[in-house]
C-alpha cells in the first residue's frame, strides 16, 4: 500500500535562529581562529564519512550506527572545546544555561524513544528466531507454531510505537529551544556558539532521520537551510540532500520502512508466510529450504545491526547525561563558592 507523501519540512521556517555573525569590530585572535577551524574541520570530516557511497547504504543500520557515533564524538568535542577555550561555567549567561538544560532534556527524551523502538524491534527478532527454530522440524505442530510466530511478527511491525510518534513534537521543541538568547558575546563565546551551531545541525539532522526511519513516515524529516558562511556547510548539504531524497523516494514507492536490514527481513517473511500457511504435508522442498535460509541470513544481519545501534544510542544518552551532570555539578560548586565568599564577608562584618 502506498504511503502519502508528506511535504518537506523546513528546519528554519522563519529564518535561522543561530545567526552567528559577530558584532562589528569583534575580531578573533589567531589562537581562537585555530581552535575554531580545527573543530569545524573535524566536524566536516565526520559529515564526509556519513555520505553514503551508494543509495543502498541509505538508511542501513550500519549507517545509523555511524551517524550515532558521529553525534557522540561531536558532543564530546564540545566539552573538550570548553576546556580549550577556558570558558568556565561562571562566565555563562544564565539564559544560556537554561537553554542548554532544556535541550539536553529533549535529547534524553529522544534517546529514550529510540531505545524503546530498538527494544520493540528486538522483540520482533525473538519472534523470528522462534520461527526459524520451529521450521527446523518437520512436525505439523512446529509448522503451526512457526506460522503463529510470523503472525506475531507481522502484527508487531504493523503497530505503532507511541514514543516514536511523539518524536516529531520533541524535534519541533528542540528546534525552537535552539534559538540562542541574545546576549553580549565575547570572542570566546562567539567561537563556542559557532561550534555549538554545527553540532546542533548534525544532531537535528540525525535525529530526524532516525525518527523518520522508525516511524515509517516522512513527517519527521527535516530540511535544514545552513548558511554557506560555514566551511562544513557544502558537505552537510550534500549529505542531507542525498539521504533525505532517497528516504522520500523509498516511502513514495510504498515501502513501510527505509531500513535495508528490516526490509530484507520483511521481504523474506512475506515470501515464506504463504508457503508455510499452505503446507499440509511436511514435505521438505528445495524452494522451501532456500526461503528459510534466506530468512535466517536476513534475521542474523538484522540482529547484529540492532545490537550495534543500541549500544551507540545508549552511548549518546550517556554523553548527553554526563554533560548535563557536569554542568549542574559546576553550577553547584560555583554557588557554594559564592556562598562561602559571602559568608566570609558577613563574618568579617560581625567581627568589625
Structure description:
This protein has one domain. It is built from ten helices and two strands. Strands 1-2 form a two-stranded parallel ribbon. The longest helix has 66 residues. The chain starts with 8 loop residues before the first strand and ends with a helix.
Task: Furnish the topology, listing elements before pairings.
Elements: E1 9-10, H1 30-50, H2 61-85, H3 94-135, H4 140-158, H5 162-165, H6 167-177, H7 187-215, E2 222-223, H8 233-252, H9 260-277, H10 286-351
Parallel strand pairs: 1-2
Helix/strand/pairing class, anyone?
mainly alpha
Order of helices and strands: EHHHHHHHEHHH
Averaged pLDDT, please?
82
Number of helices: 10
Strand order of the main beta sheet, please? 1-2
Number of E-state strands: 2
Shape category: elongated
Instruction: Let me know the largest β-sheet.
Output: 2 strands, parallel
How much of the residues is beta strand, in percent?
Answer: under 5%
What is this entry, summarized?
It is built from ten helices and two strands.
List keywords for this structure.
352 residues, mainly alpha, two-stranded parallel sheet, 1% strand, Protein BPS1, chloroplastic, BPS1_pln
